[in-house]
Amino acid sequence: MLIEDVIIIGGGVCGCSLLYELSRYRIKTLLLEKENDVADGTSKANSAIVHAGYDPPPGTMMARYNVEGNTLMEQLCTDLDILYKKTGSLVVGFDETDRKNIEKLYVKGNKNAVPGLRIVEREELFRMEPALNRDIVCALYAPTAAIVAPWEFAIATAECAVKGGAKLEFNAEVTGIKKENGHFVVVTTKGEYRARFVVNAAGVNSDIVSGMAGEKFFTIQPKRGEYYILDTTEANLINMVVFPCPSKLGKGVLVAPTVHGNIIVGPDSTDCPRDATESTAAGLEYVAKNALRSVPSVNLRASIRNFSGVRADAGIEDFIVGESKRTPGFFNIAGIKSPGLSASPAIAKDVAGMLLDKGLDSTPNPDFVATRKVTRFKHLNDDEKKEAIKRNPLYGTIVCRCETVTEGEIVDALNRPLPPRSLDAVKRRCATGMGRCQGGFCGPRVMALIAKHANMSQIDIPLDKEGMYIVTGRTKGKRGL
Description:
Blueprint: E1 3-9, H1 13-22, E2 29-32, E3 49-50, H2 61-79, E4 84-86, E5 89-93, H3 96-111, E6 118-121, H4 122-128, E7 138-142, E8 146-148, H5 150-163, E9 167-169, E10 174-180, E11 183-188, E12 191-200, H6 206-212, E13 221-230, E14 241-244, E15 254-257, E16 263-266, E17 270-271, H7 281-294, E18 303-313, E19 320-323, E20 330-334, H8 340-357, H9 382-391, E21 398-400, E22 405-406, H10 407-414, H11 423-430, H12 443-454
Parallel strand pairs: 1-2, 1-12, 2-9, 5-14, 12-20
Antiparallel strand pairs: 3-8, 4-8, 5-7, 6-7, 10-11, 11-12, 13-16, 13-17, 13-18, 15-16, 19-20, 21-22
């Protein structure tokens, strides 16, 4: 009977970060993910901001993890070759009431040890961001804020962990947890798995998973946030992340650059079911109205995509992180709303320490993978492109014209430790389909490459999650796909 040291439930940024941290040691770790890829929930549908840390209440885990995670994230993105850019952020104010709130944020940020915070007045502010509304009177400037590709962060940490010996099981939805002979038995749709310790990082379903282990002290109220993604033609609109003053609904509707050269606008915040990722006219209207207040020249007609993400709100002003008092050996990483992405490396480091304190083997793993390198043809200079094509002629074939993604990059992704098995899984790794045509031209070619590499029919390749099929069969001819 195989008994793991640790089972992690949930393959978002927190679960994957913990898998990576534990792979530093001689620890047998298994991550269970209910979908067919990591980062297929909240981690792929958020604002993609690495927050500076001025907003969380001082003294909370949220505040500590945010500021520490901000620093760890930068180094991890360098080591694992993840798209990341330190842009800084602004919280803008329109009147004296806003100014007072900005001053409160400044005080909170200093208590949280956020470096470099300062309040910027009009003259300097408009030199920094000329597109801002001229009615703005001041702003809180946080130079350590950044932007990142959140799904790539989860993919990179999981890939390195698996390459270093950790295990990951997809399409394994947890349906029950029990204790048996001193260890946990985790029941899934793919069978039963056993471990000494279990870590619940199940996002919007974390209260359900916690309840399976007999821990029912919190309830998740999912919150939907809707967004616009603007074409790269709008890339020069702003340089930093622009927030309004926060409210009880959250940090407000932001306007920000993305690491892929777009502009992201959103989100709103509404209660919703756990899987309610549809976009609504009312939500998008709210987002548009509030974005235009901060940056009046936002061109929403340049939108190439709308999407929404669901956040896990436990109704308290802190994260839920640590060992269960009722069920020893069961750990929660729950209620991870914003700034969860920013905090995830620090949460993982802390929980890994908690597990080591419970007696897990702290011997360094000789196979630990500390670095990763990805070829992004679009980002190479002319000489580097020539060298890449010389090394591998597949880099000379452009598959996605909008984002200049080559066949070589897609084949690289298909050969990495967590090969993509859906159209969107390739998108998350290579940026195919992220441009103006949203995969209209490159989609069929990407499907053909997946089918060829995996020796499978295109009929069996989903858009994203299992069951989201694109092709159902041939309309002409007798040959199978």
